[in-house]
Design goal:
- By secondary structure, the protein is an alpha/beta fold.
- It is 46% helix and 12% strand.
- The chain contains 27 helices and 20 strands.
- The chain has a 6-stranded parallel beta sheet, with helices on both faces.
- Helix 14 links the parallel strand 15 and strand 16.
- Helix 23 runs parallel beside helix 26.
- It is globular and about 120 Å long.
């Protein structure tokens, strides 16, 4: 032994050091650092979570880190390293302390085309604070200490260590080492840099002099644990507080000074208030594009001050009247100590105006938050989560529409609730929620995602079952990646083709049933406020002790109330694809059935109409031959085709009615689009429904009349061909049947919310351009 060193393998050293840093879980795809895993079992209580994919492992480590404040550990062998690097991107954007271990190239075999080997190290460079290789086992202690030190210091972020050997076999080698862990760097923040007193006083003076200031709080407030100080300062000086998505849990949404999330995935009231402020105080935010709606809210040039622990963040996007460099919590404590609460009086008119704007928002969106529409509106789901989440809950939210709904419509009710969101990667929330539950097992974790998000890593349901990770996952299921709808509407000139839906929709799937099949508890909620009479039985099937269920609450409320469900709850809540509007209420089972077979129906209709076009062309050709052939024969040879005129008249009737079917399918019939296009969405919808109902009635009249004539003339022979005259009247029956199919399909699409606003102007009968 040399001093405190002792002879040991890299695996022994790594296992002991991870235990010393308080790591409770590692997330990985084997095979990597195998000997280290064996030593973990012998020397620690660390749980080794084997996931179904490297990105899932990284996302779980990210959720673990954000929920616990401790670095999350993820691992992959060399062939999975690039997948792991992709998974670190969200942690990098959200400043989450994740440490990634991968296997790497051995100097002995470099450039010899070793199986599965490429140089992965450069791929980690853009998404890490520190990216290094560990080629000598004796470097294990100092490199691991450096990894933890960098991950949690300053602005937190990911770190990558590549261990020699495709599976990190360097951990089998021995050296004299001291497995010392620096526990100061076991969580965020390890240091609290104090700000200069002069900068604190200068910023406070500007803030107190302002009559219409607003605070924009970011994720740095949470990282510093400064939410209490933020709220205290805002209350002392009577200043409204908006937040970024990362900083949403800096202040409860129900606090009188809270105005909501500002920026792009935001709340209208927050954008209005920040836009009308005369001074903006940025605290712990990078003032990036999402928080500022790409630097439009507030506009660049507004008087601003900024507080941040990262000197590079200060003034990056907004010129500043004053800046404070230091730990957010310490800086706010200093400002609060010097604050003059008497200056709050002059901000009373501004505060009243801010509260009035917030009241307008609640008045505007209150009906949607409590809507009983079926399928369930996303706003109602957010409203239920606001009312029913436990006061110590962690809510984990995906990006895309899930992020928009929850960012704008969900409110935290208590300072003890936490909010974590994807920094931009769809599919992050579900595995991140599992990691969060591992990092904070005593707290209920509720994930909010859509079906598009869950599909990314749906295999991790099995991971949750296997490890009994009892998070609750609420799935907003509309059988589509609905955020893409508007973009495809635009590139198709405002009205997508039916085939274009293949670019962003999925088959309807009951995720609760999938969860049950894997071994989780699955519950499908189809109506707001519905009770789960079968819930108790399902819970008893998965756990031996009883669970508290409120019989008076709706199914979604019961879902989020469960704190110890084992192993998982998936709430599969069918909704519909939405843009800025919703369809009328429908019947969920019928809707699901139609959605499942709609692509086949559409393909069948398209194929049938192409067949009709071919028939029409053939009929026209026969008519031309008969009519003009008859003329030639009559005048040149004093002869003719006896049946020509009779057959041509019949074919003309069939061409007319079959052409009407094709025109109806292409929406080429007469209409009043010049008027309808100027109506609001609701007006367009009403006109479309009324128009289709009138056409269906007219179609019924054609059908009933033509069918009656078919029966009357069934045995009446035509004078020339001798064929039944029912053949003539059959044109009306055929037209009516297929016209009804087309009209009912379009009517269902509008009633079920499948049509965009542009598609509601179905008839293009004018030359006017939009």
């Amino acid at each position: 032994m040399l001093g405190h060193n002792r002879r040991m393998t890299g695996a022994e050293c790594l296992a002991e050091m991870l235990g010393g840093y308080g790591v409770t879980h590692v997330f990985m795809v084997p095979a990597v650092l195998r000997r280290t895993f064996a030593e973990m079992e012998r020397r620690t209580k660390i749980k080794r979570i084997h996931t179904h994919g490297e990105k899932s492992a990284a996302y779980m480590a990210d959720g673990y880190a954000r929920a616990s404040g401790r670095p999350g550990i993820c691992m992959a062998q060399v062939i999975g390293a690039l997948n792991l690097a992709a998974g670190l991107r969200d942690a990098h954007l959200a400043h989450s302390p994740v440490i990634a271990f991968t296997g790497g190239r051995d100097p002995k075999t470099k450039f010899r085309r070793v199986y599965q080997e490429v140089d992965d190290v450069p791929a980690f460079e853009p998404v890490t604070k520190f990216n290094a290789t560990v080629d000598d086992v004796a470097r294990f202690p100092d490199m691991l200490r450096q990894a933890f030190r960098v991950a949690v210091s300053g602005t937190p972020g990911p770190v990558h260590l590549q261990f020699r050997g495709n599976e990190g076999q360097v951990d089998a080698e021995e050296a004299d080492m001291e497995p010392m862990a620096e526990t100061q760097f076991a969580r965020v923040p390890p240091f609290r840099p104090e700000p200069e007193d002069g900068s604190v006083r200068a910023a406070l003076r500007i803030l107190q002099d302002a009559e219409k200031p607003v605070i924009v709080a970011g994720g740095g407030v949470r990282a510093s644990g400064a939410a209490r100080e933020l709220v205290a300062l805002a209350e002392n000086l009577a200043i409204p507080v908006a937040t970024s998505l990362n900083g949403k849990d800096s202040i409860p949404g129900v606090h009188p000074l809270s105005v909501g999330v500002v920026g792009t995935y935001s709340r209208e009231s927050a954008n209005r208030i920040v836009g009308q402020a005369e001074l903006v105080c940025f605290i712990g935010t990078e003032t990036g594009g999402m928080t500022t709606h790409f630097w439009a809210v507030p506009k660049i040039g507004i008087p601003a001050i900024q507080i941040d622990v990262d000197p590079e963040a200060l003034g990056r996007n907004y010129p500043l009247k004053a800046s404070v460099l230091g730990d957010v919590k310490v800086s706010l404590e200093r400002m609060l100590a010097h604050a003059d609460g008497k200056t709050a009086a002059k901000r009373k008119p501004w505060l009243e105006k801010s509260r009035a704007i917030c009241a307008e928002w609640y008045s505007k969106y209150g009906p949607q938050l409590a809507s009983d529409a079926v399928p369930i509106r996303p706003e109602r789901m957010c409203g239920e989560l606001t009312k029913n989440l436990p006061e110590d809950a962690i809510v984990v939210v995906d990006t895309g529409h899930a992020g928009m709904w929850m960012g704008g419509m969900y409110d935290l009710r208590a300072p003890t609730q936490s909010y974590m969101r994807s920094a931009g990667h769809l599919g992050w929330a579900f595995p991140a929620g599992l990691g969060a539950k591992c990092g904070a097992p005593e707290r209920p974790v509720v994930v909010f995602t859509g079906d598009a998000g869950l599909w990314y890593h749906i295999g991790e349901i099995e991971t949750a079952v296997r490890w009994k990770i009892n998070s609750v996952t609420v799935v907003n299921n509309n059988a589509s990646g609905n955020q893409s709808k508007r973009g495809f509407d635009r590139v198709y000139g405002g009205q997508q083709t039916e085939q274009a839906r293949e670019l962003w929709t999925y088959r309807p799937v009951n995720f609760a049933r999938i969860a049950e099949e894997i071994g989780a508890l699955g519950i499908r909620v189809e109506k707001p406020g519905s009770r789960c009479g079968h819930l108790d039985a399902k819970i008893r099937a998965f756990k031996r002790h009883s669970a508290r269920i409120s019989k008076s609450k709706g199914a979604l409320a019961q879902l989020v109330e469960q704190r110890t469900l084992n192993p998982l709850v998936v709430g599969s809540i069918p909704t519909r694809p939405t843009n800025k509007f919703r369809g009328l209420a429908g019947i969920p089972h019928v809707t699901e059935l139609i959605l499942r077979y709609l692509p086949r129906i559409n393909r069948a209709i398209d194929g049938f109409c192409r067949l009709l076009e071919i028939l029409i062309a053939a009929f026209l050709a026969v008519m031309v031959v008969m009519v003009f052939g008859n003329v030639v024969l009559r005048y040149a040879f004093n002869s003719g085709i006896i049946v020509s005129e009779e057959v041509s008249r019949w074919l003309f009737l069939w061409v007319t009615f079959l052409g009407a079917i094709v025109a109806l399918k292409e929406h080429g019939h007469l209409g009043t689009d010049a008027l309808i296009s100027r109506l609001p969405v609701f007006g367009k919808k009403i006109c479309l429904v009324l128009g289709h109902l009138l056409m269906l009635y007219a179609t019924w009249l054609v059908f009933s009349g033509a069918l009656a004539q078919v029966r009357i003339n069934l045995h009446v022979e035509a004078p020339v061909t001798g064929a039944s005259m029912a053949f003539v009247y059959g044109t009306g029956v055929v037209f009516a049947v297929f016209a009804a199919v087309l009209l009912l399909r379009d009517l269902w699409r509008v009633l079920s919310g499948q049509l965009s606003e542009a598609e509601m102007v179905m008839v293009k009968g004018t030359e006017e351009k939009e």
